[in-house]
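Quick log. Single chain, no ligands specified.
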Amino acid sequence: MKPGIPPLIGMLLLAAVDLVSAQQAPPPAAAAQAHAPVKAAAESSHTSLAKHLPIQAQRYYEGVWGIDSLAVKYTESGEMIRFSYHVLDPQKAAPLNDKRAEPSLSDAQAGVQLVVPQMEKIGQLRQSSTPISGKQYWMAFSNSGRRVKPGHRVDVQIGNFHAEGLVVE
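-> predicted structure:
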């Protein structure tokens, strides 16, 4: 990661998303009631994410990358770290599923950078199909030596996509 550039871009994009959100008028009362189940479902999908990411970061990933519910999980064996996300906007999320983009997971505390392994008969342990709205996607990073542990904060990079400070569950 280049120091200074991604955080600055992220801050500018967050400001733009907040500005657009502030300019939109609230829906009429009837429309608000019609959207209540959708809003409740959206809030419940953020429950685990809200523990670890500030609301500004959630808005950034939703507005810029068309995803939410980012999660990094330590597998039972500890040999793999699974990164997953829920697609809201397939066009915005498409770069995350691009086969040419090499994903990496960095853990400064452990001093490692993990990659998605290429299995002989299976291929890469990631989904690279065209994203579909409402679907959950994942990729698995090799954690040989079990250096990345639950509770560590990690960064995930896939091409131009950067998710910083995600907590391993």
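The first helix runs from residue 5 to 23.
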